[in-house]
Specification:
Number of helices: 12
Largest sheet: none
Helix content: over 70%
Number of strands: 0
């Protein structure tokens, strides 16, 4: 489906090639989700295997990019690395007696029916976070797309740091909501306030140092990305607040509210 969509959009041939190279990642992601859900008891061992496998493939990818001077290896490595680690995980699970079960259609229908709020929010989030790049890619030059995307990748990495806080604090949110509602409210409020303050500090820092950050990471040819980066970072405090507030609602079972 991805190559077909890219063929319709007004994209350069090089971009269409990248989309084709990346499209197998959809299959790999669905496979990954399937066996991770069925093998939740071995999740720690699987996480270690996947981390080591992805690190090995990433190292090989960097080497190939340097040797061949072609960025296509980055796209290839994104799904081949995941596929390799999936094979390693399957091997480890198979040796311990685990067998992958075919998902039941009734279960899938039930998940789609009962989980439509999650699906809707996920789809909307993907549209909101990626539509700008698609519009710019269809209407502006490749140089301008590169300048915007370079800044946007830094923003994505920074916003993704909230995931580290969520991974550590979410179990505690669930425990406090179950055992002590006032403590839960205080805990979530403190997390949101502190994370938002960090977001404001990062926004102020980037507003002053954006040209230097871009120059260090990408070089002088991406000088125009500095102003774009400073503007994009205005969203960081709100993104941190939104992420932690959403996890707090999820821990309280209020995601439908």
């Amino acid at each position: 489906a991805c190559p077909a969509v890219s063929a319709v959009l007004p994209l350069a041939a090089a971009v269409r090639n990248l989309v084709s190279e990346l499209s197998p990642r959809l299959f790999v992601q669905s496979l990954n989700c399937s066996y991770f859900l069925q093998a939740s008891k071995q999740i720690k061992a699987l996480a270690v295997v996947r981390t080591l496998g992805q690190a090995a493939v990433a190292s090989l990818c960097v080497t190939l990019v340097i040797v061949t001077n072609s960025s296509i290896w980055v796209a290839v490595a994104m799904w081949t690395g995941a596929l390799l680690t999936d094979a390693l995980c399957f091997g480890a699970l198979h040796s311990s007696g685990f067998r992958l079960r075919r998902p039941a259609w009734d279960v899938g229908k039930h998940l789609l029916k009962s989980g439509w709020p999650y699906l809707s929010v996920s789809l909307l989030s993907q549209v909101l976070t990626n539509f700008d790049v698609l519009v710019i890619g269809a209407t502006r030059s490749s140089q301008e797309v590169g300048e915007y995307t370079a800044a946007y990748r830094i923003l994505q990495f920074t916003i993704g740091l909230a995931g580290l806080v969520i991974a550590v604090t979410f179990p505690e949110m669930v425990r406090r909501f179950r055992d002590d509602r006032p403590a839960f409210s205080s805990f979530v409020t403190t997390l949101i306030r502190q994370s938002t303050r960090v977001g404001y500090a990062l926004t102020a820092l980037v507003a002053v140092t954006a040209p230097q950050i871009v120059s260090i990471l990408y070089g002088a040819q991406y000088q125009q990305s500095g102003f774009i980066l400073a503007v994009l970072f205005l969203a960081v405090p709100l993104a941190y607040c939104n992420s932690l507030l959403g996890q707090g609602l999820l821990a309280a079972g209020r995601e439908r509210g």
